[in-house]
TrEMBL record:
UniProt entry keywords in alphabetical sequence: Cytoplasm, Repeat, TPR repeat
GO cellular component: cytoplasm
Organism phylogeny: Eukaryota, Metazoa, Chordata, Craniata, Vertebrata
Every AIP/AIPL N-terminal FKBP-type PPIase domain range: 28-156
Gene3D superfamilies: 3.10.50.40, Tetratricopeptide repeat domain
Identification of the protein by name: AIP/AIPL N-terminal FKBP-type PPIase domain-containing protein
Keyword Cytoplasm set for record: yes
Compartment(s): Cytoplasm
GO molecular function, one term: peptidyl-prolyl cis-trans isomerase activity
Protein's organism: Pelusios castaneus
Matches recorded under SUPFAM superfamilies: FKBP-like, TPR-like
InterPro entries, sorted: AIP/AIPL1/TTC9 (IPR039663), PPIase_AIP (IPR056277), PPIase_dom_sf (IPR046357), TPR-like_helical_dom_sf (IPR011990)
Amino acid sequence: SMDEIYLLNVQGVKKKILHGGCGELPKFKDGSKLTFHFQTLKDDFERTVIDDSRQAGIPMEIIVGKLFKIEVWETLLTSMRIGEVAEFWCDAIHTGMYALVSKGMRRIAEGKDPLEGQKHRCGMGNMFDYHSTGYADLDELQRTPQPLIFIMELFKVDDPSSYRRDTWAMNKEEKLAVVPVLHREGNRLVLLKKYREAAEKYQEAVICLRNVQAKEKPWAEDWLSLENLITPLVLNYCQCQLELGEYYEVLEHTTDLLQKNKENVKAYFKRAKAHAAVWNEKAAREDFLKVAQLDPSLAAAVKKELRLLGERMREKHVEERQRYQGLFHHYQCSVGQREPGAWRACKAGAEIVGEQQIELGCSVSSQSPS
């Protein structure tokens, strides 16, 4: 009945079935495509309508398991049968992204570029930047997070094997919309020191943007605005790779960034760290000095890095010298085996060298990247 309210086992969500669907609950798998219509209402006395996909004329599609920008939508839809119409009340904790998503959907319906107004700014900046969305009702939602009501009608659930779509089964708008979600997710994982998982999130975001960028004319304004979204993600990816010790990958990606933009201080800094880690002393020095030249406020940090680099290079030379000495000792010992005195002295010498190497080994390996 109308009054029947199901509390989905998700905090801050209530469900009311308005029209029962047919058959069993569908098999929702990762990659299933869900096609539905929705209406978004304010939780006020008038139940003010914010969006209605029927008016836009195109039903929505989302893919299960591919982080949609309003994550709760997947939860709502996967509780439904085909043909069901249900009303969901969602607390503000689930609706924070709604204004940004709605803006994108409205711009697409109007035949405009959903990224308009985001040019030359990093994606994270846009997320937290409460500039106008261009729609008064959405600006109000941005300023005052609030519960929303979604009325959903689920039409169709396509099995992943029954349809073919391009990368990650996403259209351009979905790709652009998922980027800030992946960016945030990567940042969260970095704070938990889960660098490998974070790198995967950044990489997936870069792939989404590169796919969209591939359809633009190189160096044209839209291409450049996408490049500006890509750069911070690549730098974050490089930071993860530094933490994971994948120095040659960092050298490759930073060099690629610097070919496009000679002024990128962060790219020089990360490349310098990678050069230092693989003992390219001259290249590391050049990059560190370039950092100080481009951004004098980093001069102190650069000075510290150059001092550490000098210490590490000296330690490496000492260690190598000792290794050769050790080999030379062993050679002498094996030749002079009939002279127990010389053999004893040599053995003691080798032990001392061994201890020093271990000590040096520690001081070298404890050099963690910043």
